Amino acid sequence: MNASDAPFSTRAVAMIVIAGGVAFAAFLLLVAFAPDFRSGHDARAHALSTSGTGYAGLVELADAMGSHSLIVRDDGHICTATLLVVTPEAYGDPAALSRLVDRHCKGAMLIVLPKWRTQPLPAHRSWAQTIGMDPPGANIAALRKVAPGIALEQTPFAGTPRLRAADIPRLARARIGSQKEQQRLTGKGFTPLLLDHDGRAVLGQVDGTRIYVLAEPDLLNNQGMADPWTARQGWQVVDDLMPSDELAFDLTTNGFGRQKSPLQLLFKPPFLPVTLCIVAAGLLAGLHGAFRFGAPAGQGRAIALGKLTLVDNAAQLFRAARKEHRVGGAYAALTRDLAAQATAAPARLSGEALDRYLDHAGRHAGDEPYATLAWHAETAEDRDQLLGAAHALYRWRRNRTR
Protein backbone atom coordinates (compact mmCIF):
# COMPACT_ATOMS: atom_id res chain seq x y z
CA MET A 1 0.00 0.00 0.00
CA ASN A 2 1.34 3.40 -0.94
CA ALA A 3 1.50 6.27 1.53
CA SER A 4 -1.15 8.10 -0.48
CA ASP A 5 -3.56 5.16 -0.04
CA ALA A 6 -3.34 5.17 3.80
CA PRO A 7 -6.61 6.24 5.53
CA PHE A 8 -4.74 8.40 8.08
CA SER A 9 -1.65 10.50 7.67
CA THR A 10 1.39 10.08 9.91
CA ARG A 11 0.64 13.36 11.67
CA ALA A 12 -2.96 12.32 12.38
CA VAL A 13 -1.86 8.97 13.83
CA ALA A 14 0.73 10.70 16.01
CA MET A 15 -1.86 13.18 17.32
CA ILE A 16 -4.31 10.37 18.07
CA VAL A 17 -1.66 8.44 20.01
CA ILE A 18 -0.58 11.54 21.97
CA ALA A 19 -4.18 12.49 22.78
CA GLY A 20 -4.92 8.94 23.90
CA GLY A 21 -1.86 8.88 26.17
CA VAL A 22 -2.73 12.24 27.75
CA ALA A 23 -6.36 11.18 28.25
CA PHE A 24 -5.29 7.92 29.87
CA ALA A 25 -2.89 9.72 32.23
CA ALA A 26 -5.61 12.22 33.16
CA PHE A 27 -8.02 9.35 33.82
CA LEU A 28 -5.53 7.72 36.19
CA LEU A 29 -5.01 11.01 38.04
CA LEU A 30 -8.75 11.55 38.42
CA VAL A 31 -9.28 8.01 39.69
CA ALA A 32 -6.43 8.38 42.19
CA PHE A 33 -7.26 11.88 43.49
CA ALA A 34 -11.02 12.11 42.89
CA PRO A 35 -11.88 12.49 46.63
CA ASP A 36 -9.56 15.51 46.88
CA PHE A 37 -11.23 17.25 43.94
CA ARG A 38 -14.73 17.30 45.43
CA SER A 39 -15.83 20.83 46.22
CA GLY A 40 -18.26 19.89 48.98
CA HIS A 41 -20.99 22.23 47.69
CA ASP A 42 -23.72 19.67 48.30
CA ALA A 43 -26.11 21.47 50.69
CA ARG A 44 -25.00 19.38 53.68
CA ALA A 45 -23.74 20.48 57.11
CA HIS A 46 -19.91 20.48 56.97
CA ALA A 47 -17.04 22.91 56.65
CA LEU A 48 -17.03 22.94 52.84
CA SER A 49 -20.75 23.56 52.40
CA THR A 50 -21.95 27.06 51.46
CA SER A 51 -25.61 26.30 52.19
CA GLY A 52 -27.44 27.76 55.18
CA THR A 53 -26.66 24.69 57.31
CA GLY A 54 -23.01 24.50 56.25
CA TYR A 55 -19.97 25.94 58.03
CA ALA A 56 -17.92 27.53 55.24
CA GLY A 57 -18.71 30.96 56.77
CA LEU A 58 -17.11 29.93 60.06
CA VAL A 59 -13.95 28.93 58.19
CA GLU A 60 -13.81 32.34 56.51
CA LEU A 61 -14.52 34.11 59.80
CA ALA A 62 -11.69 32.25 61.53
CA ASP A 63 -9.27 33.33 58.81
CA ALA A 64 -10.55 36.91 59.01
CA MET A 65 -10.05 36.95 62.80
CA GLY A 66 -6.41 35.97 62.39
CA SER A 67 -6.76 32.30 63.27
CA HIS A 68 -5.27 29.55 61.19
CA SER A 69 -8.01 27.23 59.92
CA LEU A 70 -7.23 23.69 58.81
CA ILE A 71 -9.52 21.42 56.80
CA VAL A 72 -8.83 17.86 57.98
CA ARG A 73 -9.31 15.14 55.37
CA ASP A 74 -6.55 12.76 56.50
CA ASP A 75 -6.74 10.67 59.66
CA GLY A 76 -3.06 11.39 60.24
CA HIS A 77 -3.84 15.06 61.00
CA ILE A 78 -6.49 14.29 63.63
CA CYS A 79 -4.05 14.01 66.52
CA THR A 80 -3.33 17.69 67.03
CA ALA A 81 -3.21 20.14 69.95
CA THR A 82 -5.75 22.54 68.41
CA LEU A 83 -9.54 22.71 68.68
CA LEU A 84 -11.19 20.27 66.32
CA VAL A 85 -14.71 21.14 65.15
CA VAL A 86 -16.72 18.02 64.28
CA THR A 87 -20.09 18.27 62.53
CA PRO A 88 -21.75 14.84 62.54
CA GLU A 89 -24.94 14.46 60.55
CA ALA A 90 -28.29 13.04 61.56
CA TYR A 91 -28.23 9.29 62.21
CA GLY A 92 -24.43 9.53 62.44
CA ASP A 93 -22.30 6.46 63.14
CA PRO A 94 -21.42 6.31 66.88
CA ALA A 95 -18.42 4.05 66.18
CA ALA A 96 -16.96 6.54 63.68
CA LEU A 97 -17.18 9.40 66.18
CA SER A 98 -15.71 7.20 68.91
CA ARG A 99 -12.72 6.35 66.70
CA LEU A 100 -12.29 10.05 65.93
CA VAL A 101 -12.21 10.87 69.65
CA ASP A 102 -9.59 8.17 70.24
CA ARG A 103 -7.35 9.51 67.45
CA HIS A 104 -7.69 13.12 68.65
CA CYS A 105 -5.25 12.48 71.45
CA LYS A 106 -4.22 15.99 72.58
CA GLY A 107 -6.54 18.87 71.71
CA ALA A 108 -10.08 19.85 72.55
CA MET A 109 -13.04 18.83 70.40
CA LEU A 110 -16.24 20.76 69.70
CA ILE A 111 -19.08 18.55 68.44
CA VAL A 112 -21.77 20.61 66.73
CA LEU A 113 -24.91 18.52 66.64
CA PRO A 114 -27.20 18.53 63.59
CA LYS A 115 -30.62 20.09 63.76
CA TRP A 116 -32.23 20.76 60.40
CA ARG A 117 -33.63 18.36 57.85
CA THR A 118 -32.86 19.81 54.44
CA GLN A 119 -32.79 18.96 50.78
CA PRO A 120 -30.81 20.63 47.96
CA LEU A 121 -32.69 22.93 45.61
CA PRO A 122 -33.03 21.50 42.08
CA ALA A 123 -31.85 24.74 40.43
CA HIS A 124 -28.94 25.29 42.88
CA ARG A 125 -27.56 22.04 44.23
CA SER A 126 -25.34 23.91 46.70
CA TRP A 127 -28.35 25.59 48.35
CA ALA A 128 -30.43 23.88 51.03
CA GLN A 129 -34.16 24.02 51.53
CA THR A 130 -35.29 23.51 55.14
CA ILE A 131 -38.02 20.93 55.64
CA GLY A 132 -38.05 20.91 59.44
CA MET A 133 -36.07 19.68 62.43
CA ASP A 134 -34.81 16.13 62.63
CA PRO A 135 -36.00 14.19 65.69
CA PRO A 136 -33.77 14.43 68.77
CA GLY A 137 -32.88 10.75 68.62
CA ALA A 138 -31.45 11.15 65.10
CA ASN A 139 -29.43 14.25 66.02
CA ILE A 140 -27.93 12.68 69.13
CA ALA A 141 -27.22 9.28 67.53
CA ALA A 142 -23.50 9.94 66.99
CA LEU A 143 -22.96 10.58 70.75
CA ARG A 144 -24.17 7.21 71.98
CA LYS A 145 -20.63 5.95 72.66
CA VAL A 146 -18.91 9.23 73.47
CA ALA A 147 -21.58 10.68 75.81
CA PRO A 148 -24.43 8.20 76.30
CA GLY A 149 -26.05 10.28 79.07
CA ILE A 150 -26.65 13.39 76.96
CA ALA A 151 -30.11 13.92 75.47
CA LEU A 152 -31.80 16.66 73.44
CA GLU A 153 -35.03 18.54 73.71
CA GLN A 154 -36.65 20.71 71.07
CA THR A 155 -39.31 23.39 71.14
CA PRO A 156 -41.87 23.41 72.49
CA PHE A 157 -39.99 22.54 75.68
CA ALA A 158 -41.71 20.26 78.16
CA GLY A 159 -40.60 21.72 81.50
CA THR A 160 -38.99 24.72 83.15
CA PRO A 161 -35.18 24.93 83.28
CA ARG A 162 -33.38 24.44 86.58
CA LEU A 163 -30.08 26.10 85.60
CA ARG A 164 -28.99 29.58 86.68
CA ALA A 165 -26.30 31.86 85.30
CA ALA A 166 -24.38 31.53 88.55
CA ASP A 167 -24.02 27.77 87.94
CA ILE A 168 -22.08 28.30 84.71
CA PRO A 169 -18.34 27.94 85.41
CA ARG A 170 -16.82 29.38 82.27
CA LEU A 171 -18.88 31.05 79.54
CA ALA A 172 -21.24 33.94 80.00
CA ARG A 173 -25.02 33.83 79.78
CA ALA A 174 -26.10 34.31 76.15
CA ARG A 175 -29.09 35.12 74.05
CA ILE A 176 -29.40 32.82 71.07
CA GLY A 177 -31.24 35.07 68.67
CA SER A 178 -34.96 35.21 68.03
CA GLN A 179 -35.56 31.65 66.85
CA LYS A 180 -38.86 29.84 66.79
CA GLU A 181 -37.32 26.34 66.65
CA GLN A 182 -34.64 25.64 69.24
CA GLN A 183 -32.62 22.64 70.40
CA ARG A 184 -31.09 22.27 73.86
CA LEU A 185 -29.07 19.78 75.92
CA THR A 186 -30.62 17.68 78.66
CA GLY A 187 -29.78 14.51 80.47
CA LYS A 188 -26.63 13.87 82.48
CA GLY A 189 -22.90 13.28 82.10
CA PHE A 190 -22.01 16.85 81.09
CA THR A 191 -21.34 20.26 82.63
CA PRO A 192 -23.33 23.18 81.13
CA LEU A 193 -21.15 26.00 79.82
CA LEU A 194 -23.61 28.21 77.97
CA LEU A 195 -27.29 28.93 78.60
CA ASP A 196 -29.97 30.58 76.52
CA HIS A 197 -32.10 33.43 77.82
CA ASP A 198 -34.46 30.92 79.45
CA GLY A 199 -31.70 29.11 81.34
CA ARG A 200 -31.50 25.98 79.15
CA ALA A 201 -28.11 24.44 78.26
CA VAL A 202 -26.84 25.24 74.77
CA LEU A 203 -23.24 24.13 75.24
CA GLY A 204 -21.88 21.46 77.58
CA GLN A 205 -18.60 19.72 78.38
CA VAL A 206 -18.58 15.93 78.68
CA ASP A 207 -17.47 15.07 82.20
CA GLY A 208 -13.83 14.07 82.51
CA THR A 209 -12.96 14.98 78.90
CA ARG A 210 -12.15 17.99 76.73
CA ILE A 211 -15.11 17.26 74.50
CA TYR A 212 -17.68 20.03 74.11
CA VAL A 213 -21.15 19.49 72.67
CA LEU A 214 -23.09 22.35 71.07
CA ALA A 215 -26.79 21.66 70.71
CA GLU A 216 -27.61 24.77 68.65
CA PRO A 217 -25.82 24.67 65.23
CA ASP A 218 -27.41 28.00 64.24
CA LEU A 219 -24.75 29.72 66.35
CA LEU A 220 -21.99 28.66 63.96
CA ASN A 221 -23.51 27.69 60.61
CA ASN A 222 -23.80 29.96 57.60
CA GLN A 223 -27.32 30.94 58.58
CA GLY A 224 -26.04 32.19 61.93
CA MET A 225 -22.96 33.85 60.40
CA ALA A 226 -25.30 35.95 58.26
CA ASP A 227 -26.49 37.74 61.40
CA PRO A 228 -23.78 39.99 62.93
CA TRP A 229 -24.96 39.52 66.52
CA THR A 230 -25.20 35.76 66.23
CA ALA A 231 -21.83 35.60 64.46
CA ARG A 232 -20.25 37.63 67.28
CA GLN A 233 -21.74 35.34 69.93
CA GLY A 234 -20.80 32.18 68.05
CA TRP A 235 -17.22 33.29 67.52
CA GLN A 236 -16.96 34.17 71.22
CA VAL A 237 -17.89 30.57 72.06
CA VAL A 238 -15.28 29.15 69.66
CA ASP A 239 -12.62 31.62 70.79
CA ASP A 240 -13.12 30.70 74.45
CA LEU A 241 -12.69 27.00 73.67
CA MET A 242 -9.59 27.37 71.47
CA PRO A 243 -6.32 26.55 73.28
CA SER A 244 -4.37 28.34 70.54
CA ASP A 245 -5.00 30.29 67.34
CA GLU A 246 -5.41 27.09 65.31
CA LEU A 247 -8.87 25.81 64.42
CA ALA A 248 -9.39 22.51 62.59
CA PHE A 249 -12.53 21.29 60.86
CA ASP A 250 -13.07 17.56 60.49
CA LEU A 251 -14.42 16.19 57.21
CA THR A 252 -13.77 12.49 57.76
CA THR A 253 -17.10 11.95 59.55
CA ASN A 254 -18.87 13.60 56.58
CA GLY A 255 -17.41 11.23 54.00
CA PHE A 256 -14.66 13.50 52.67
CA GLY A 257 -11.74 11.64 54.22
CA ARG A 258 -8.68 11.09 52.08
CA GLN A 259 -8.59 7.37 51.47
CA LYS A 260 -5.29 5.57 51.02
CA SER A 261 -5.11 4.41 47.44
CA PRO A 262 -2.29 2.27 45.99
CA LEU A 263 -2.75 4.20 42.75
CA GLN A 264 -1.77 7.45 44.48
CA LEU A 265 1.62 5.96 45.36
CA LEU A 266 2.53 6.03 41.65
CA PHE A 267 2.26 9.81 41.60
CA LYS A 268 3.88 10.59 44.96
CA PRO A 269 7.47 10.34 46.22
CA PRO A 270 9.36 8.07 46.56
CA PHE A 271 7.67 6.12 43.71
CA LEU A 272 7.21 9.10 41.39
CA PRO A 273 10.75 8.81 39.85
CA VAL A 274 10.09 5.11 39.13
CA THR A 275 6.83 6.01 37.39
CA LEU A 276 8.58 8.66 35.28
CA CYS A 277 11.27 6.16 34.28
CA ILE A 278 8.62 3.65 33.21
CA VAL A 279 6.82 6.31 31.17
CA ALA A 280 10.09 7.35 29.51
CA ALA A 281 10.90 3.72 28.69
CA GLY A 282 7.45 3.32 27.16
CA LEU A 283 7.95 6.42 25.02
CA LEU A 284 11.31 5.15 23.79
CA ALA A 285 9.80 1.76 22.98
CA GLY A 286 7.02 3.50 21.06
CA LEU A 287 9.51 5.57 19.07
CA HIS A 288 11.52 2.45 18.32
CA GLY A 289 8.44 0.75 16.93
CA ALA A 290 7.20 3.79 15.03
CA PHE A 291 10.28 4.24 12.84
CA ARG A 292 11.99 1.63 10.65
CA PHE A 293 15.70 1.02 11.07
CA GLY A 294 17.48 -0.22 7.94
CA ALA A 295 16.10 -1.79 4.79
CA PRO A 296 13.06 -4.02 5.15
CA ALA A 297 13.81 -7.74 5.13
CA GLY A 298 12.57 -9.59 2.09
CA GLN A 299 9.83 -12.13 2.54
CA GLY A 300 10.50 -15.61 1.23
CA ARG A 301 8.05 -18.14 -0.15
CA ALA A 302 5.90 -19.95 2.33
CA ILE A 303 6.68 -23.24 0.49
CA ALA A 304 10.13 -23.39 -1.14
CA LEU A 305 10.70 -24.91 -4.58
CA GLY A 306 13.08 -27.80 -5.47
CA LYS A 307 13.76 -31.47 -4.83
CA LEU A 308 15.33 -30.78 -1.46
CA THR A 309 12.08 -29.29 -0.26
CA LEU A 310 10.17 -32.37 -1.38
CA VAL A 311 12.59 -34.59 0.48
CA ASP A 312 12.36 -32.47 3.61
CA ASN A 313 8.56 -32.49 3.47
CA ALA A 314 8.50 -36.27 3.02
CA ALA A 315 10.91 -36.67 5.92
CA GLN A 316 8.73 -34.47 8.11
CA LEU A 317 5.71 -36.60 7.23
CA PHE A 318 7.53 -39.77 8.22
CA ARG A 319 8.74 -38.14 11.39
CA ALA A 320 5.25 -36.89 12.30
CA ALA A 321 3.79 -40.37 11.68
CA ARG A 322 6.58 -42.04 13.70
CA LYS A 323 7.31 -44.38 10.73
CA GLU A 324 10.95 -43.49 10.15
CA HIS A 325 12.14 -47.06 10.75
CA ARG A 326 10.01 -48.31 7.83
CA VAL A 327 12.32 -46.75 5.21
CA GLY A 328 15.28 -49.02 6.03
CA GLY A 329 14.70 -51.37 3.07
CA ALA A 330 14.49 -48.50 0.56
CA TYR A 331 17.70 -47.00 1.94
CA ALA A 332 19.49 -50.37 1.61
CA ALA A 333 18.39 -50.72 -2.04
CA LEU A 334 19.51 -47.14 -2.79
CA THR A 335 22.90 -47.84 -1.20
CA ARG A 336 23.44 -50.96 -3.37
CA ASP A 337 22.49 -49.05 -6.57
CA LEU A 338 24.86 -46.20 -5.77
CA ALA A 339 27.68 -48.61 -5.03
CA ALA A 340 27.06 -50.50 -8.32
CA GLN A 341 27.21 -47.27 -10.32
CA ALA A 342 30.36 -46.10 -8.57
CA THR A 343 32.19 -49.41 -9.15
CA ALA A 344 30.99 -49.83 -12.78
CA ALA A 345 29.39 -53.19 -12.02
CA PRO A 346 28.32 -55.18 -15.10
CA ALA A 347 24.79 -54.38 -16.17
CA ARG A 348 23.89 -58.09 -16.48
CA LEU A 349 24.31 -58.59 -12.73
CA SER A 350 21.30 -58.24 -10.44
CA GLY A 351 19.96 -59.63 -7.19
CA GLU A 352 22.24 -61.99 -5.29
CA ALA A 353 24.81 -61.98 -8.08
CA LEU A 354 25.22 -58.21 -7.74
CA ASP A 355 25.43 -58.57 -3.96
CA ARG A 356 28.24 -61.14 -4.24
CA TYR A 357 30.09 -58.95 -6.74
CA LEU A 358 29.94 -55.93 -4.45
CA ASP A 359 30.90 -57.96 -1.39
CA HIS A 360 33.88 -59.38 -3.28
CA ALA A 361 34.95 -55.86 -4.26
CA GLY A 362 35.28 -54.89 -0.61
CA ARG A 363 36.40 -58.06 1.18
CA HIS A 364 39.59 -56.41 2.28
CA ALA A 365 37.56 -53.89 4.35
CA GLY A 366 36.21 -56.58 6.68
CA ASP A 367 32.58 -55.45 6.33
CA GLU A 368 29.63 -57.72 6.86
CA PRO A 369 27.86 -59.01 3.74
CA TYR A 370 25.41 -56.67 2.11
CA ALA A 371 22.52 -59.08 2.68
CA THR A 372 23.12 -58.96 6.43
CA LEU A 373 23.27 -55.17 6.50
CA ALA A 374 20.12 -54.87 4.37
CA TRP A 375 18.31 -57.29 6.70
CA HIS A 376 19.21 -55.16 9.73
CA ALA A 377 17.89 -52.06 7.97
CA GLU A 378 14.62 -53.71 6.94
CA THR A 379 13.90 -55.15 10.40
CA ALA A 380 14.69 -51.97 12.38
CA GLU A 381 11.98 -51.36 15.01
CA ASP A 382 12.78 -47.79 16.01
CA ARG A 383 14.81 -44.77 14.99
CA ASP A 384 17.94 -45.77 16.89
CA GLN A 385 18.15 -49.18 15.23
CA LEU A 386 17.56 -47.59 11.84
CA LEU A 387 20.39 -45.09 12.39
CA GLY A 388 22.79 -47.90 13.35
CA ALA A 389 21.91 -49.90 10.24
CA ALA A 390 22.18 -46.80 8.01
CA HIS A 391 25.67 -46.02 9.36
CA ALA A 392 26.77 -49.56 8.64
CA LEU A 393 25.42 -49.36 5.06
CA TYR A 394 27.13 -46.02 4.54
CA ARG A 395 30.51 -47.43 5.64
CA TRP A 396 29.94 -50.44 3.39
CA ARG A 397 29.34 -48.20 0.33
CA ARG A 398 32.24 -45.85 1.18
CA ASN A 399 34.71 -48.77 1.39
CA ARG A 400 33.77 -49.74 -2.16
CA THR A 401 33.73 -46.34 -3.78
CA ARG A 402 36.81 -44.57 -2.45
Polypeptide structure, described:
The chain is α/β, with parallel strands linked by helices. It has helices spanning 10-37, 56-64, 94-103, 136-139, 222-225, 228-241, 272-290, 307-321, 328-342, 351-361, 370-378, 383-401; strands spanning 68-72, 83-86, 109-112, 116-120, 128-133, 150-154, 183-187, 190-195, 201-206, 211-214, 246-250. The chain has 2 domains: 39-255, no CATH class; 307-401, no CATH class. The protein contains 12 helices and 11 strands. The mean pLDDT is 81.
Structure characteristics:
rod-shaped, two-stranded antiparallel sheet, 402 residues, single chain, alpha/beta, seven-stranded mixed sheet, 12 helices, 2 domains
